[in-house]
Specification:
By secondary structure, the chain is of the alpha/beta class. The longest helix has 27 residues. It starts with a helix and ends with a strand. The radius of gyration is 24 Å and the shape is globular. It has a single domain, classed as 2-enoyl-CoA Hydratase, Chain A, domain 1 (Alpha-Beta Complex), CATH 3.90.226.10. The protein contains 12 helices and 11 strands. Belongs to the peptidase S49 family.
Amino acid sequence: MNKKRWIALVIAAGLLLFSVIWQAATSFMTADFEELFNANDTPFEEKVIEEGSGAGKIAVINLNGVIQDTTGNSFTASGYDHAKFLEMIEAAGEDTMVDGIILRVNTPGGGVVESAEIHDKIIEVQEETGKPVYISMGNTAASGGYYISAPADKIVAHPATLTGSIGVIMQSINFSDLADDLGVDFNTIKSGEYKDIMSASRDMTEEEREILQTMIDDMYGDFVQVIVDGRDMSEERVMELADGRVYTGSQAQELGLVDDLGTLTDTIAMMEEENELQNPQVVEYQPGFGFNQFLGGAVKSMFGNEEELHGMVELLRQTNAPRAMYLYSE
């Protein structure tokens, strides 16, 4: 490469760097830092979606996306926030003006632990406050999405909702054959026979498969029991339905997995009528804009559109460690 090309390359790199620094500086200079840092003190804000003349309120809380705890990820400008979602449910329970809670569920499921935490929080609010908790299912409320719905006082699905997918899944990739073809060797030093269980660099042994299957069966048993308790169904009946398949909302109603069919608007009307709420105000809890969201937005402005940003974050966050999931994947 001649001297002129080198000079042109250096100039181009310098311009790119200057552009990135300028965008970041502009974002910081135009930010209201007092509001930015104080926003974290309020985990959410209320948006009125229906005015009411009564004294009470119905709180609508949205669950969108995969149920997973991404605490500490400062670059996610949007998406599901597990800690904040739990805070919203708890806050709705503690708010004496709130007479009922509707969870708008649109998720394929997610982590076993995270799903259990939401399930337990719902039961806690029901038992401590006596407030009704209704579920309004969106496009998808499968696997972990159904797990968290089971204890609700009423489940309402759209006829075309995909729900069910009752079960547990754990997956990993085995690329040992590809490694052999490429002449790649793996050296593993481990403290015990099963320390590298589900390793991607070798075949799984029968003993390892039995160990993992026992774990999955145990978690599956917990899932079944959640439905037995929440839907007042026999274990035998739940086992018949819990083979991992998905159902439409209409099918789920026929099978007893959901109570009624309708939209979010229908669910609100049902809660008002069935709990004799006199023209309550309906509010939607929305996440507050904190520093993490600001930082995520600044990165987004520098590196491209939202889809590209999320793809980058997911790529950086993924590890080789498999985990058990209450998750429906197409």
